[in-house]
Design a protein that fits this description.
With 98 residues, the chain is mainly alpha-helical. The protein has one domain. The chain is 51% helix and 4% strand. It has helices at residues 9-31, 55-67, 80-93; strands at 34-35, 38-39. A two-stranded antiparallel ribbon has the order 1-2. The radius of gyration is 17 Å and the shape is elongated. The N and C termini lie far apart (56 Å).
């Protein structure tokens, strides 16, 4: 077919290594912002661990971490699936505030 691209095994190995490096660095760059079940917007920000904060940013951080294949994540420091579940339940239960 005309749309096929020739990719060698060496290319696949290189792409996998790049993905592994990216996921490791990405994970480490975000995990420092985790506090409780939320992610801080700024390193100096302090969050109340008993509440859910920064809904959009936290959801984005969790989703992007989950996009990295589990096998390519660095050592399992946190249970990302559990965090996603806990955050989503807390976000849905959060009182509506204007």
């Amino acid at each position: 077919m005309a749309d096929e691209v020739d990719v060698s095994f060496d290319d696949v190995v290189a792409y996998r290594q790049q993905l592994h490096t990216f996921c490791s660095l990405h994970y480490n760059s975000l995990i420092g912002f985790k506090q409780g079940i939320s992610f801080k917007l700024y390193e100096s920000e302090t969050l109340d661990d008993t509440k859910v904060h920064n809904l959009t940013s936290t959801a984005t951080c969790i989703a992007s971490l989950l996009d990295c294949p589990e096998a390519l994540r660095p050592e399992k420091i946190i249970d990302l699936s559990g965090l996603a579940h806990e955050f989503s339940v807390a976000a849905l239960q959060r009182p509506h505030e204007l």
